Give the backbone structure.
Amino acid sequence: MASNDRKNYLPPVNHVTQLFTTENDVNIYDVESLARMINEELSILNWPVKVSISNEDRNIAFQITGMDQTINRFTAILISLYLASNKNPYKISKLLLYPVSIYIQVAETAHKEEAMHSIYEYFSDNRDASRL
């Protein structure tokens, strides 16, 4: 697989849901439990990354922080895929890239297809400068 192919590669959703096996249908508004669950699962992989979650006026935001931008990006994709495949799917509404972190804001959607489309939209090579 070429380097460009890896950049556009999204892992299968069933692999992502296996990573986060402790929760099938997560309450995204319980940000403390969600952050603990995500960070515990990622620590098993021994990745140098930390995820923090905030909820202000039902706007859920994830901050993925680590020194390796490739791991940060892949972690952002994993979390996005996990939320898109949830019983109540969530789509990406905003994504910003910083030198050592990625900020993702999500919004509930009625359709998993819309949630998946947002992931492809934000993580494809056809993106503007404000996106990853």
About this structure: The chain is about 40% helix and 25% strand.
